[in-house]
Amino acid sequence: MSQSIVRTVLGDVDPAALGHTQPHEHLLSDLSRPLSPRATVGERALDNAPITLDNHYRVRRDHTSEDLRLDSPDVAVAELRRYAEAGGGTVVDATSIGLGRDPAGLAEVSRRSGVHVVMGSGFYYRDYHPADVATRDRDDLAEEIVADLRHGVGGTSIRSGVIGEIGLSHPPHREEEKVLRAACAAQKETGAALMIHPGRDPRSPGQALDLVIGEGVDPSRVIMSHVERTVFSALEMRAIAGTGCYVEFDLFGQESSYYSLAPIDMPNDATRVDYIVDLIEGGFASQVLISQDICHKTNLTRYGGEGYTHILEHVLPLMRRKAINDVQIAQITVANPARALAFPG
């Protein structure tokens, strides 16, 4: 029987070597999209403007194209060095194909920062699909994901270590459903974890899990991302966990109720921790993951944001204040992500 490994951009490591792990971040990515033809002159002027103290709040609130591009390995290295100094060991860069994924850049960032980096694979939601996804069949897409995991991305030897984040709208576009089925095939062939970005509707996680389970994927190998912007009650959280998948609270640090992408009232960090307390009380502690999903310049300390250290510096003390003990914290931040990311080498 093969020994379990975690596949990083610098090679395979023992799951026990990961340390504190944030399983849903972005280090190098590009979420920018063309502005609407209806954009005003002022909106167009701001869209690619440098981020300053004068425009910081507006940029962080509504996310300009400049804000949506994480494009500097030097900045990523500086930010991850802070993370390492605070006690961080590993991050998953969940950037999938079509979001500016940069294997060579991630390898450089990992090497220079000393932090393990696990790279994503697969495809995000429809608006970000490369044009050829529409003409390719499920098997062809699955083969690309498997090749990313086993051989390397784009002719490099730098390999992905997780499938995802696989993006869904609500209701899912037929191409998104095809991509998810391809991701399921790749998961069954490789054993790698499958990370799902659900649509922004409370029905989306359940529908995605029904499809995944119907495809024969073990739900214990599935990570359901962004649960706290998708369902809004402890009962719904428990229902997701009851399928056996990992329940990922990955928007820590986003303390504002305002959400620019949908009419959603976002919870704050205290509410996220309350949901986690309920899941622990319900017997689901082994399925909880936490992260920050940093994907904007304004999340970075370089630009006045919280940085990748927010969980280590602020959330863990909050969890302790709300009676989550150190054994449970280690389970959530070390043991659970190590188990989720491990697959046969």
Automatic annotation (TrEMBL):
This is Aryldialkylphosphatase. Its cofactor is a divalent metal cation. SUPFAM superfamilies: Metallo-dependent hydrolases (SSF51556). PANTHER family: PHOSPHOTRIESTERASE-RELATED (PTHR10819), PHOSPHOTRIESTERASE-RELATED PROTEIN (PTHR10819:SF3). The keyword Glycosyltransferase does not apply. Belongs to the metallo-dependent hydrolases superfamily. Phosphotriesterase family. It comes from the Bacteria. It comes from Nonomuraea cypriaca. Transmembrane segments: none annotated. Pfam families: PTE. Keywords: Hydrolase, Metal-binding. GO terms for molecular function: hydrolase activity; zinc ion binding. InterPro entries: Metal_Hydrolase (IPR032466), Phosphotriesterase (IPR001559). A divalent metal cation 1 binds at H24, H26, E165, D293. The keyword Metal-binding applies. Binds 2 divalent metal cations per subunit. A divalent metal cation 2 binds at E165, H197, H226.
